[in-house]
Predict the structure.
Amino acid sequence: MPLGEEAAHRVARYLREGRPALAAGAENALFLSARGRRLDTSTIRRLVRHPHRLRHAFATHLLEGGADLRTIQELLGHASLSTTQIYSHVDARRLRRVYDGAHPRS
């Protein structure tokens, strides 16, 4: 998974210093509940108001960083590339807004 240097540092620190004290049989999970168990989708929905926005932000940041659509498709678990292509349209609209703002007479 693509991960920036600062994020990688923080995750490594969490794995080294924080997670071992929490873990209660969830060896394969990165993030744990207060009881040391793997977070499930219902818990995430309670914690994050709009969990799909996290996926959308993740995909958009990858695309803006130069990742190709096939890689994003695989990371998001989309069966069809057409589902992933939605993000390329969003990115194109965003780029147009930025360009128009920087060059209003163009």
Remarks:
- The first helix runs from residue 5 to 22.
- The mean pLDDT is 80.
- Helices lie at 5-22, 41-47, 51-64, 69-76, 81-84, 86-102.
